[in-house]
Amino acid sequence: MIQEHQTQLRVRYDETDPMGFVHHSNYLRYFEIGRTELLRASGGSYRAMEAAGQLVVVVRIDCRYRSPAKYDDLITVHTRIARVTAAKIIHEYKIRRGDELLVEADVTLAVIDREGRLQRVPESLLEAYQANL
Amino acid sequence: MIQEHQTQLRVRYDETDPMGFVHHSNYLRYFEIGRTELLRASGGSYRAMEAAGQLVVVVRIDCRYRSPAKYDDLITVHTRIARVTAAKIIHEYKIRRGDELLVEADVTLAVIDREGRLQRVPESLLEAYQANL
Amino acid sequence: MIQEHQTQLRVRYDETDPMGFVHHSNYLRYFEIGRTELLRASGGSYRAMEAAGQLVVVVRIDCRYRSPAKYDDLITVHTRIARVTAAKIIHEYKIRRGDELLVEADVTLAVIDREGRLQRVPESLLEAYQANL
Amino acid sequence: MIQEHQTQLRVRYDETDPMGFVHHSNYLRYFEIGRTELLRASGGSYRAMEAAGQLVVVVRIDCRYRSPAKYDDLITVHTRIARVTAAKIIHEYKIRRGDELLVEADVTLAVIDREGRLQRVPESLLEAYQANL
Least CA distance to B19: which residue of chain D? Predict the structure, then answer.
């Protein structure tokens, strides 16, 4: 499993607000793209997990906003797997425009089934993630 | 079945763009609230239909934008059932700020099942809608 | 200034995801509505502040997700002013469906000018907020 | 000026709804990306136009939905300049997944100034667009 990954995004018009800045809620969507692409680069797929009834949900976000991204900016989402246990997966994110750090965050995920019951992180995912930690 | 309905909405900050206007895509979300509230006022529920496997999808939008709504504006979504057949339901919308007309649209809906196959508009809905036309 | 405020919201269809849950990023939008309505109930207005060149930005979010809201749920956003200094304003949020706690968060705001320079929290706002703490 | 352009997009999780389909409002956002990239490929920039006080707004959408896109689908937005006059610019869009046509639309744009007054389509843009029609 790859432990770090970078994805480039172009800021969309509808993602920006009257201040001309990316609305703060949209960075959470960028983080989600970051972890999806990290998993894809490792040969995995959230779509396949979801089809198999393993739903990955966010249980905590801690996000620090340093400087705003603007419309049409080219930004980089840097995603890193910080910690994996049987109960949760923590990713760290840094969003940059060139060398400038814009936003940093830790996002904690858990796995539930269709009835909302907490599940162990799937063994295959656990091994793959832990191999690099 | 009620044939016309009005819902008031307050424009949210994240719905507006760097011009200070509501992003044009968001009016489609306001229309959806309009028809949801019209159906609720008639004793129906899209949530219940969806739970029963009757998925209502948009098959056509024709939308004319006259004047933009802005952040924190109080706007009214006026929804009217224009035409109902076994194959489709057409609603007409007018969004106003006070007396000023901002946006007009016709939205055509169809009903499909979970496999995406086109269904007849449910008989109960058909009768209820047609009673007023 | 009012120190606590409650706003009721109906979950919109476009806010929910394939799991049938409100997408986690949308709670940040609900918090924004909560503080806007708290300020409005106190006679203030973010729209007026912004027109005066005082831009209020989010500098930190710490959000814990307990249980998901679903399409068409009626939820309550409970907003409380937790701490106000010359540099920042911290609100605490609790989102509930009936008595059930769904999401909790602390959101830290700062005030900047149009060039992005940090400003003192406006004196009027400071006094008003601190009167109740 | 390039008259046709194709952009590839990956459907994001937050763009899909409880049916598992892209919410119909999001295709309008995909169209906006299509025309932005067409203009960029021609050496232009909406960001630069907006900085110069030329605001491009949508005045009409006519959109036909054939088949839904789903989470994680790779889709292609095909954008074509259909007609340009001093008053408006019409683009045609076709969104496909592989060879399958999902959505078709005509979107009409106009240019306004910061006070909302209708402007002539800028001469440079007019000439560039018409060169290919």
Answer: D55
Q: Report yes or no: D13 at the A interface, CB cutoff 8 Å.
A: yes
Residue-number span of the structural domain to which D124 is assigned: 4-130
- Domain CATH code at residue C72: 3.10.129.10
| Tokens encoding D104 | 């078709």
- Sign of the dihedral defined by the CA atoms of residues C111, C116, C120, C123, in that order: negative
- Structurally, chain D folds into a number of domains equal to 1
Taking CA A115 as the corner, what is the angle to CA A114 and CA A117, rounded to the nearest 5 degrees? 105
Q: Which residues pair with D56 in a beta bridge?
A: D111
Q: Consecutive 10-residue runs of chain B (133 residues): their mean pLDDT? A: 91 95 98 95 88 93 97 97 92 98 98 89 75 56
Single out the residue of C129, C103, C111, C112 nearest to residue C28, CA to CA: C103
Cα A59 to Cα A54: distance, rounded to the nearest angstrom: 15
Question: Does ipTM come in above 0.95?
Answer: no
Measured between beta carbons, which residues in chain D are less than 8 angstroms from residue C20? 18
Could you give the CA distance from residue B98 to residue B110 in angstroms, rounded to a whole number? 32
CB contact under 8 A, A18 and B20: yes
Query: Which listed residue (D14, D17, D73, D106) is catalytic?
Result: D17
